[in-house]
Amino acid sequence: MEYAPGAIIEVPFGGRSAIGVVWGAGEGVLADSKLKPAGAALPLTPMTPILRQFIDRVAAYTLSPPGAVLRMALSSPKSLLPVRSSVSYKLSPDNNLPAKNPARLRVARLLSDGTARSATEIAQTLGCSTSLIKAMVKSNEIISLPVEPPSPFLKPFVASHIIFSAAQTSAATALQQTMQEDAFSATLLEGVTGSGKTEVYYEAIAAAVAQGRQSLVLLPEIALTAQWLDRFVAHFGVRPAIWHSDLSPAQRRITWRAVADGKAPVVIGARSALFLPFSDLGLIVVDEEHEAAYKQEEGVIYNARDMAVLRAHLGRHPVILVSATPSLETLVNVKNGKYRRLHLPNRHGSAELPEINAIDMRRAPPPRGRFLSHTLIEALKQNLEAKEQSLLFLNRRGYAPLTLCRACGYRVQCPNCTAWLVEHRQAGRLQCHHCGYAARMPSNCPQCQATDSFAPCGPGVERLAEEALALLPNARIATMTSDSLSSPTAAETLIKDMINGNLDILVGTQIIAKGHHFPHLTLVGVVDADLGLAGGDLRAAERTFQLLSQVSGRAGRETRPGRVFLQTYEPNHPVIAALVAGDEKGFLHQEIEARQAAAMPPYGKLASLILSATDEQLVDQACRSLAAVAPHGDGITVLGPAPAPLAILRKRHRRRFLLKSAKNLALQPIIQNWVETVRLPRLVRLQIDIDPYSFF
After folding, report:
1. Distance CA 555, CA 519 (A)
2. Model pTM score
3. Measured over all CA atoms, what is the biggest interatomic distance in the chain, rounded to whole angstroms?
4. What is the mean pLDDT of residues 21-48?
């Protein structure tokens, strides 16, 4: 069988068939008796060598099966089906018009001008049925012509010109020059919140379009797409292609094929868009590059930011990493000369950065059962009177993170995980945020059978919104979380309500902390600024600083000044102190020194191995077998096995090894040799996470 490299073909497997990709020449020779014919190649553009090489490299780096990575690039089988073409009709060359049937004669006369028309157009014009048209095709009085559907994605053009500041002009010029180099480069575009970073990297997209090459913009959250799209359309006059998990099968098929055929000039998407089959990719932009949402935690475990740099390197084109609060990994790469850095130090126009104040909750605690301090309540009232908008931030979904029995202290726990069930009062259920288990609130305590004894402990955003409404009954309040937004359309509606001034107070989680531009928002209240600082996560301080900086940056983005209040029980914590003082450099310097002293990323390497099984003894036995042959030597430390912080997830008992190594060691061959020396039981699942971001 002869196929072009990268051809997508149908391959027989016993009594079924599967989709495969021709990767290249294999190794060794098989006897003809062991071979069977492969199926026909699908009428698709072959997968490019760059994409096939990218899949190989991702698989090797993440220690994942290549087929699992390939599956992300093929998206879904429905994407591989041809887009249905429409049909139009013309008069047959053999038709001399005289027809015994008057209806047929009217159709023939209509088409005698040589213009092809659809069946619907003919039927509506003449008041006839479409069955008549089919009969005339059968008798060769008219002929059908397939019509390829027009591309749904038009070529962008610059519809509006923005007046840049000097710093923006300098950065935009540098990015345009980078696009002319026809070579790989990685650039950090850093700028304070509201400094116009998006409009600056639009100039790089415009340069890619002028070169006839495709661009990919990655965003960490689907909820960010609505406002980003409005800005893109205002700038370029057309909508880009969109790629995320909420697309319908038909939309996925159209977009996937348009990308493969080079008919989608600009694509905006979630991390999975990185595996689309671009025919000629010339630019990748990773917006909010510091976001942990770029790390995929299940299946193939990878960081889309790092893989974007890899794909750009393979394709020999630029990648732009954009953030107001860059990750330490990116900053160290800038320091070491691997990445370029462009900086926008000021907000666009006359807007100024907001004033940040810490409220010491030890000295001025709210009344029992309340969570908003007197200072923050007064600020909310002032904003409401001034007809300005406010934002209350709490990174906890639902009504309360814990529900317990007042009579016996029983805590309502997930039956599948070592996690408390979160009350979602608006939906009338208790839910586990790890496995998705949901149940109604029991009327009796399962332990002591007490009636109506359950009490919510701690606040979630729903409880916060309830308190704000009780204190400010005339305020128009809405919540914004991943639970309350059922689709990108729902997110777009809520964002537009905020922009149009239809809301007074928005209460939400981290989904509101980045990317949004609300012109009338002048007050941000962070209800629990200490929330992310607890636990053993090495990035806890960095993440909290980034998150609070981002949410603070929503305030005062137009002419009116902004204020931020951080409710905290640790006002002297380095993160809180740095935010109040505006000392980002001091905080980063301290954080980098601590990482360097401990040889932790980005000055060392980590890999996590998680074993899980429904049988606790079985997983412990497998751990002992692995521990007995754990690697050792200079620059290598293996910690564990130990129960994972989330020791049971989806009814599976979990144990964790953490491998720490020096920066100059390659972890993948060490881990591969380690796990291959032990034959794990079939019922034990091994998950390998290179560069772990979460330690649950």
Report:
1. 9
2. 0.90
3. 97
4. 86
Cis peptide before 602 (omega within 30 of 0): yes
Task: For residue 687, give the nearest of 618, 611, 605, 607 by alpha carbon.
Answer: 611
Q: Can you read off the two tokens belonging to residue 114? A: 């040589």
CA distance 152 to 240: 9
Task: Say what angle helices 304-315 and 49-62 make with each other, to 10 degrees.
Answer: 140
Model confidence pLDDT, tens digit, residues 52-107: 999 999 999 999 999 999 999 987 777 787 666 678 999 888 777 666 788 888 88
Question: DSSP string covering 215-263, please?
Answer: EEEE-S-GGGHHHHHHHHHHHHSSPPEEESTTS-HHHHHHHHHHHHTT-
- Output the CA angle 254-204-235, nearest 5 degrees: 70
Residues 301-343 have pLDDT tens digits of: 999 999 999 999 999 999 999 999 999 999 999 999 999 999 9
In this structure, the dihedral spanned by the alpha carbons of residues 168, 173, 178 and 181, taken in order and rounded to 10 degrees, is: 180
Are the CB atoms for 564 and 552 separated by under 8 Å? Answer: yes
The per-residue b/e assignment along 381-402, b for 16 or more CB within 10 angstroms, e otherwise, is eebbeeebbbbbbbbbbbbbbb
586: tokens are: 């001091």
Long-range Cβ pairs for the range 678-682 (8 Å, 24+): 678/622, 678/625, 678/626, 678/629, 680/611, 680/622, 680/625, 680/626, 681/613, 681/618, 681/621, 681/622
Of 364, 322, 352, residue with least CA distance to 172: 322
Q: Going along 316-458, which residue ranges are E strands? A: 318-323, 340-344, 355-360, 389-393, 402-405, 422-424, 429-431, 438-439, 454-457
Q: Which of 48, 66, 71 is closest to 56 using CA atoms?
A: 66
Separation CA 38–CA 9 (nearest Å): 8
Q: How far apart are CA 583 and CA 362, in angstroms?
A: 24
Report the sign of the C-alpha dihedral through residues 484, 485, 486, 490, in that order.
positive
Q: What SS3 class is residue 506?
A: strand
